[in-house]
Amino acid sequence: MAELIDEQVCPYCDRVEEDYRSHWDNDSTTVNCSFCDKEYHVTAHYKFLGFETQKICDECGSVEDECFCEIDEGED
Ligand SMILES: [Zn+2]
Ligand SMILES: [Zn+2]
Asked: 67 CA distance to ligand 2 centroid (A)?
C-alpha cells in the first residue's frame, strides 16, 4: 500500500488541497484539483479505533449524548 499522508496532495502538481476542499469520506472518489484542474483519484483511509455504543432515547430517538428530554423518574 502506498504511504499515507494527512494532507490531500495533487499527484500532478504536488500542491496541497485545503482541508475544507479535501475528500474525507471513507470511500474513494474522483476530485478536480483546484490548482491545475486535473482529475485525480482519492481514497481516505481511517484506522479503526473501536466501537462506541449508546442507548437511544425512547422519547426523541436521539442517542443519550444528544437527548435533552427530561426523564420523569416518577418522584411521587
Ligand atoms: Zn493539481
Ligand atoms: Zn430524548
From this structure: 4
For residue range 3-52, list pLDDT tens digits in order: 788 899 999 999 999 988 888 887 889 999 999 999 999 998 888 899 99
Residue 58's alpha-carbon distances to 61, 63, 75, in angstroms, are: 6, 10, 20
- Does the pTM exceed 0.70? no
Closest ligand to 17 CA? 1
Instruction: Please tell me the distance between residue 52's alpha carbon and the centre of ligand 2 in angstroms.
Output: 19
Q: Is the dihedral of CA 61, 67, 69, 74 positive or negative?
A: positive
